[in-house]
């Protein structure tokens, strides 16, 4: 499961594609070159490797796609990869004589790569090494993730070793359960986690060309629970699109080989990204996955509608309380399907219409399997998706971490 609140996640797998994605911005069809940064901070602890094995496989998958298409075409690809708990390297990936070549740019020590200052430095170094030919940039962040939640608020993180009783729609009896990118989480959130605001600050303070509107074209989160409106809103000023999952991601992560063409094309194909992702997982033994492309440029309109709804003090209709779609595996849910929640409120038809229009402008593309999977505790939780719209909201949550942190988010301040 990969979640970025952890960023919190505490870890990131990033790709950069830089360009303003508004309708009146640069015409992507005229661009001839783009830069992608894959950012993979340490996903374990001082004594555990976390997702390292799978992140290496992800990089191998990307490189094989480059070999199969006989080069990077008009792209530049940079990777920031944490090789251990206290070391990381930034290098450029090149293609020469039918082979992949890594050109080392900079080594990092300690846990500095997890700070906003480090993200700014990495961005600036990438931009400086892009030969001033950067037209748009995108970021892929690969790691564990916990949505928008704050690392300082997690006092009792649900590690796998803890035994809990889960309330599930369906529970399997197998002993060897497949893990997710959230599985086990990061053992040391304080040292290896990073909050969403720190990510946004690091990008905002970098030398991203003003010709792109100082925004990334997209951020793709290869971590759990990152397709939440709170994170998207916090990132709206630094990226045009957020591509992420509402739920947990299996530990294998994104199928980069099959997704590469849509990720790296001159005009990123978001519908292809989401459909390719779920098509891949539907064929697996454990067919679970969701992926959404969120247009962050339209979030202010949605926030305005939500403010009007919240100001009306509308309550959830009693008969619908148990039918609001939960999209996580926490004992006390954190992430609820946003549209499922809003439609359960006793709001008038005018507000319902306004919400629907604004929401459809935000969720540009989404795709999901029939069920989702979670492994936060000792056994899996599998939920059938009765209501799914591609974006989560935590307003309805009673989870202690939500109650501690939600009023600190920009989204809460803008909508309450």
What can you see in these coordinates?
The structure is a single chain. The chain is of the alpha/beta class. The chain is 28% helix and 20% strand. The protein is built from 12 helices and 13 strands. Helix 6 packs antiparallel against helix 7 (270-282). The longest helix has 17 residues, at 52-68. It starts with 33 loop residues before the first strand and ends with a helix.
Rg, Å, rounded: 20 Å
* Backbone structural class: alpha/beta
Largest sheet at a glance? 9 strands, mixed
How far apart the termini lie comes to 30 Å
Dominant shape: globular
Percent of residues in β-strands: 15-25%
Instruction: Give me the side-by-side strand order of the main sheet.
Output: 4-3-2-1-5-6-7-8-10
| Poorly predicted runs | 1-32, 159-174
Mean pLDDT, to the nearest integer, reads 83
What is the chain-wise order of helices and strands?
A: EHEEEHEHHEHEHHEHEHHEEEEHH
Helix coverage percent: 25-40%
How many strands?
13
Instruction: Please report the number of helical segments.
Output: 12
């Amino acid at each position: 499961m990969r979640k970025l609140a952890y960023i919190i996640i505490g870890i990131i797998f990033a790709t950069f594609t830089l360009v303003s994605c508004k309708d009146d911005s640069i015409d992507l069809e005229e661009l001839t070159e783009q830069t992608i940064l894959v950012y993979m901070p340490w996903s374990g602890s001082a004594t555990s490797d976390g997702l390292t094995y799978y992140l290496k496989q992800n990089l191998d998958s990307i490189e094989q796609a480059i070999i199969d298409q006989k080069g990077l075409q008009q792209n530049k690809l940079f990777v920031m990869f944490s090789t251990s708990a206290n070391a990381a390297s930034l290098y450029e990936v090149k293609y020469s004589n039918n082979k992949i070549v890594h050109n080392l740019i900079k080594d990092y020590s300690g846990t500095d790569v997890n700070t906003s200052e480090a993200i700014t430095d990495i961005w600036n170094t990438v931009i400086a090494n892009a030969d001033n030919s950067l037209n748009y940039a995108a970021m892929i962040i690969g790691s564990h993730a916990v949505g928008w939640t704050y690392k300082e608020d997690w006092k009792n993180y649900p590690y796998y070793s803890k035994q809990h009783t889960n309330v599930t729609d369906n529970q399997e009896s197998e002993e060897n359960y497949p893990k997710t990118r959230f599985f086990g989480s990061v053992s040391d959130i304080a040292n290896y986690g990073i909050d969403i605001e720190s990510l946004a600050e690091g990008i905002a303070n970098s030398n991203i060309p003003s010709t792109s509107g100082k925004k990334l074209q997209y951020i793709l989160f290869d971590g759990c629970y990152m397709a939440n409106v709170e994170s998207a809103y916090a990132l709206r000023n630094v990226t045009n699109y957020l591509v992420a999952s509402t739920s947990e991601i299996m530990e294998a992560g994104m199928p980069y080989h099959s997704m590469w063409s849509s990720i790296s094309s001159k005009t990123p194909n978001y519908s292809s990204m989401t459909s390719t992702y779920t098509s891949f997982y539907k064929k697996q033994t454990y067919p679970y996955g969701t992926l959404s492309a969120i247009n962050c440029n339209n979030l202010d309109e949605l926030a305005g509608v939500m403010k009007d709804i919240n100001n009306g003090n509308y309550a959830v209709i009693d008969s619908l309380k148990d039918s609001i779609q939960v999209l996580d595996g926490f004992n006390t849910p954190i992430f609820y399907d946003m549209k499922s929640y809003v439609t359960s409120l006793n709001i008038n038809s005018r507000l319902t219409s306004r919400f629907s229009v604004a929401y459809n402008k935000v969720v540009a593309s989404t795709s999901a399997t029939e069920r989702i999977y979670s492994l936060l505790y000792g056994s899996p939780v599998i939920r059938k998706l009765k209501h799914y719209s591609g974006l989560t909201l935590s307003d309805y949550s009673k989870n202690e971490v939500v109650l501690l942190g939600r009023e600190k988010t920009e989204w809460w301040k803008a909508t309450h």
